[in-house]
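## tool: complex_structure
## caller: assistant
## args:
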Amino acid sequence: MDDKMERWTVTAFDDAAARIALPPRERWLPTDRRPRSSLPSTALSFALVAIVLAVALWLVADGRIVPAGPSAKPAPTNLIRLAPGGTEAQTWGAVWSRSKGATVLRPTWLSEADLGPSYDVVTTSKGLYRYVVGYYPKIVFPSGPQPWHFLFIAEGSDVLTPRLGTGDSAEYVSVRGQTGQLITATNGEVRVVWMENGIRYTIQAGSGIPGSDVLRVAESMMRVVDADGKVATP
Amino acid sequence: METARAYSTQVNETAWDEAYLDAYPDVYRGLVALGARGDEAEDALQDAFLRGLERADISRAAGWLFVVSLRRWRRRRFRERIFSPLRAVMRSEHPMEPELRIDLFDALARLPRRQREVLVARYVVGLSQEETAASLGIARGTVAATTTQAARALRTRLEER
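## result:
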């Protein structure tokens, strides 16, 4: 490498590294100097999965597994699904079909393009407990935090209202004709919370998205009407 | 005899503490430059510190810490992705605020892994060519060639922006 390139590289890295804040010095050394467990919980999980698989394979080899008949017991009342990679309409359609009649609101405007959705739905025997639809950059790059993402959360009455985090600031705003809260966290992330149709809706945005855009996204939301993810016409 | 051994252990631990604290800022920044969140870098370094207590040799402390904590962080990130993908994506704690997004590190992340590691080892952690070669388990000539190639690629990417 020639001198000019060497100087450029040294300067560029020095400048960039200097901008990374260090944690307080009292956190540098661990408080407990004993070696941490060499068998973490994830290793135990691996071991458990391996045992279950081994037993299953053994049963299959012996031809002991037969197709199950209809269960006399009721099906589990809650359901958790996570399906990244589907289209936006498929995602919302899947949420709608699993939300037990709860009003599912889908955004029709986002301030960021190239976001891919994934979802997570939990229901109880009484109806919707919570759904979360996340929109994340399709190309997660670079690794680390993604300031441009949205989470659309709807929670039933069983879910306790979350408290404000330390340092969070909140202001009352009008959202879709309701009084809601615009909450700004200390890390710059904004979320809008409001009640509608007996459900608490939250839009949580990454720190790269301003509050005004989050409010505009909220106003753009339309009711999903079928399993194809179509929205009601205004 | 027991007292002498205890004293020796104490001396070694104190020396390791000093070597660790001395290397901490550069290695922490190196991990963050490679994409670790602040909390991940802290955990990885503390794990490496505890492993270092079992080590008699404290020479090349910075290179050893860098490589061990890098492996710890990568293992943890792999586990997070496997066991809780949504939580991993939702977490957003990071030592760099959005307005401080550092273009250099964004461009660095686009380079191949070996190039990233060599550049960070050399210019953030501050290891010499020999130390980088020994720590990453590659030949010194490879370090030199990779450094030149990676620095050129990095500069080109930054100039394209």
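## assistant note: Helices of chain B lie at 2-33, 38-52, 61-83, 85-90, 103-108, 113-123, 129-136, 140-160. The first helix of chain B runs from residue 2 to 33. Handing back to user.
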